[in-house]
Specification:
Strand content of chain B: 15-25%
Order of helices and strands of chain B: HEEEHEEEHHHEHEHEEHEHEEHHEH
Radius of gyration of chain B: 25 Å
Structural class of chain A: mainly alpha
Shape of chain B: elongated
Helix content of chain A: over 70%
Distance between the termini of chain A: 28 Å
Helix content of chain B: 25-40%
Oligomer: heterodimer
Strand content of chain A: under 5%
Number of strands of chain B: 14
Structural class of chain B: alpha/beta
Order of helices and strands of chain A: HHHHHHHHHHH
Largest sheet of chain A: none
Number of helices of chain A: 11
Radius of gyration of chain A: 21 Å
Distance between the termini of chain B: 58 Å
Chain lengths: 281, 373
């Protein structure tokens, strides 16, 4: 699809892509370097129980740091994905480029599908950037502190764990990207879509949890909402090897629920944009 | 800016498309809530012609353009492009249409060239050579690498025109193309429009620059409150109300005399002169009875004794004949009252005159209807 090439061309040239990527990488670097310093060399290090120090050393050393990095991406990454998706979708309205493309005969459905593909790929780029940055800094920290490279843990099982973690992290970012693109289409504004997307990401899960504890009706629908299911699947990354066993039914249900939501978001995006009047800004 | 202005590339379309109906709107209507923004608009734009779409602010021009371009859904009626009836979201037929829209700011973080490349990629790809061709055409090639965020409004307008021409479309729909351009740019735009039409493209433009429209366009339509008030060839519209311009010493008295003449539809002041509108296709104004004394008046003496019967075989001849007859009769009537005109000439109405005249007529009709109610 040529339109996807055009979307990726824009994504590559958009400054916010690189800024978000850089911020994610910097946060990852600061976390790994900071935790290593705090647990190993800071004046407070002696106060940390040895077992805890061992865990931190493991989590910040290469290659065992990779699942931790993925866990961070899956947990905090959606914030960045929301901002990028809102810009990719909403700015086309304020710049008038969406209506210009449509007026020149670009099929509306193709346009939305290309946008969806672009934001999903953008979330992959964000995830990859953070993971690469985290991996490099953990390698540097490992070598700088004179720790041995525990390459013996790189087994098929460990690689499977990383692959699964990457898939879950990408799903988490991609999910919120698609949701934000729908918000951008509905609101025709990058700013509104960003604000709404961030609020949903930060509050929806907690709000549903709180209301579910008060109202039985909300408790019934809570398993079908977004935040709780995203939390459920991202916790698999933290569980690591312990989650190797057949997935429990509630986790499987979370995947199904999120898949259904994803289909609904995609369908709504296509449906709304196909019927949207673009003449009025 | 290109020293030679906007230079159109040799047309590839002329031979195969000249004279074809490029855009037709049939009873196109758009209602927003209770407000009818566009009301049964029927337009026909052929290839090889420049069609001007005029109207005051809020007349419904942009809404009509949006419906043609598939950006707004018609409440009723439909649009045909190159003979094909197209649904409002039908994209394929609109590939033949290039558009210059109001309010398009482009991707500000990209250069002009990169902007066009994005559109070229999105619209099935066009070679980079074509991107540079159109940038050169609008005089932006030297600034092609600059980010669009640094462009002036006029430069963005030029870029918008380059984009409209990118796919070498058969039909061009341009919303206020000259907006923000400097005088040289306006002239270049005008020349380009003519050149594109002569290459066999259909150019449909909305504009507030009535003088420009008069020069560029072959046909115009005047829209007000969503209704087409007048439509036709520019030369026909300009001659819709023929008029004689008279310079007299006592205009107040002369006005009364002229208004009393049969066939005179109106008299108005234009500075020191009187502009007398007459009904061209009515029977010639009857000659007043001229006394011997009056006939000896120096001006009246120059009046022909016999009024030649106008030749109505063609509009032009009929128009010229009617003017000669009317001018002679009016001056004879004035001379009979002792206020002969010292200068008489045909009144050359501009499109601006026609535009305001049409709007005024409608306003008057509406007011009289209102009173009747």
């Amino acid at each position: 699809m040529r339109i996807l090439t055009a979307e990726l061309f824009k994504l590559k040239r958009l400054r916010i892509t690189w800024i978000l990527l850089a911020v994610m990488a910097v946060i990852e670097i600061l976390m790994i370097a900071g935790m290593s310093y705090w647990a190993m060399t800071s004046p407070d290090a002696a106060k940390i129980p040895p077992e805890e120090r061992k865990k931190i050393a493991m989590a910040t050393s290469f290659p065992a740091s990779i699942p931790s990095t993925l866990s961070f991406v899956a947990t905090l990454g959606p914030l960045f994905a929301v901002i990028l998706a809102a810009r990719l979708g909403g700015d086309e309205y304020s710049w008038g480029t969406a209506k210009q493309l449509v007026s020149m005969g670009l099929d509306r459905c193709t346009y939305v599908i290309a946008k969806l593909a672009a934001v999903i790929l953008a979330s992959l780029v964000l995830m990859a950037g953070a993971v690469v940055a985290g991996t490099i800094i953990s390698l540097v920290v490992t070598l700088a502190l004179g720790r041995p490279l525990a390459l013996n843990i790189v087994t098929a099982s460990f690689l499977g764990e990383i692959a699964r973690g990457a898939g879950i992290a990408w799903l988490s970012l991609g999910f919120y990207s698609v949701l934000t693109l729908l918000l951008a289409i509905l609101t025709r504004s990058a700013t509104t879509a960003t604000a709404t997307g961030i609020l949903l990401f930060l509050l929806e899960g907690n709000l549903v949890g709180f209301l579910a504890s008060k109202f039985p009706l909300v408790a019934k629908i809570a398993p079908y909402t977004i935040g709780q299911n995203v939390t459920s699947i991202t916790s698999l990354i933290e569980q690591g090897a312990r989650a190797q066993a057949p997935l429990p039914p509630e986790v499987l249900r979370s995947f199904v629920v999120l898949a259904v939501w994803l289909v609904v978001f995609v369908a709504c995006s296509v449906w709304v944009f196909s019927r949207q009047e673009l003449g009025v800004d | 800016m290109s020293p030679a202005g906007f230079q159109n590339t040799p047309g590839r379309t002329r031979s195969r498309t000249a004279g074809i109906v490029a855009i037709r709107t049939v009873d196109l209507t758009k209602v927003f809530g209770v407000h009818k923004a566009v009301n049964s608009v029927g337009l026909e734009i052929k290839t090889g012609e420049v069609f001007g779409f005029l109207g005051p602010n809020g007349a419904g021009k942009t809404t009509t353009i949006n419906m043609i371009l598939g950006l707004a859904r018609p409440t009723s009626g439909h649009v045909e492009i190159l003979g094909q009836r197209v649904g409002w979201t039908c994209a394929a037929a609109r590939r033949h249409v290039g558009s210059l829209l109001d309010g398009v700011r482009f991707y500000p973080y990209l250069s002009a060239r990169a902007n066009l490349q994005v559109f070229a990629k999105a619209l099935d790809g066009m070679p980079d050579r074509r991107v540079d061709e159109v940038l050169d055409l609008v005089g932006l090639l030297e600034r092609a690498r600059d980010k669009v965020r640094g462009y002036s409004h006029g430069m963005r307008r030029r870029l918008a025109l380059a984009l409209a021409l990118l796919s070498d479309p058969v039909v061009l729909v341009l919303d206020e193309p000259a907006s923000g351009l400097d005088p040289a740019g306006i002239k270049e735009m005008r020349d380009l429009m003519k050149s594109l039409a002569s290459d066999g493209k259909a150019v449909f433009l909305s504009s507030h620059l009535l003088h420009e429209v008069e020069i560029i366009c072959d046909k115009v339509a005047i829209l007000r409150r969503g209704v087409v008030l007048a439509q036709g060839r520019v030369d026909e519209l300009l001659s819709r109300t023929p008029a004689v311009e008279l310079a007299v010493d006592r205009p107040d008295e002369a006005e009364k005399v002229l208004l009393a003449q049969p066939g005179v539809s109106g008299v108005r002041r234009d500075g020191e002169r009187l502009v007398v509108e007459y009904l061209a296709h009515q029977a010639p104004i009857q000659p007043p009875s001229v006394s011997t004394e009056e006939a000896s008046h120096p001006v009246a003496a120059r009046m022909p004794d016999r009024v030649p019967v106008p030749d109505l075989s063609s509009d032009a001849t009929a128009g010229a004949g009617a003017y000669r007859v009317t001018a002679g009769r009016l001056n004879a009537a004035l001379a009979a009252q002792g206020i002969p005109a010292y200068e008489i000439r045909p009144h050359c109405a501009g499109l601006e005159d026609v535009f305001f005249e049409v709007l005024q007529e409608v306003n008057q009709n509406e007011n009289s209807d209102g009173r009747a109610v």
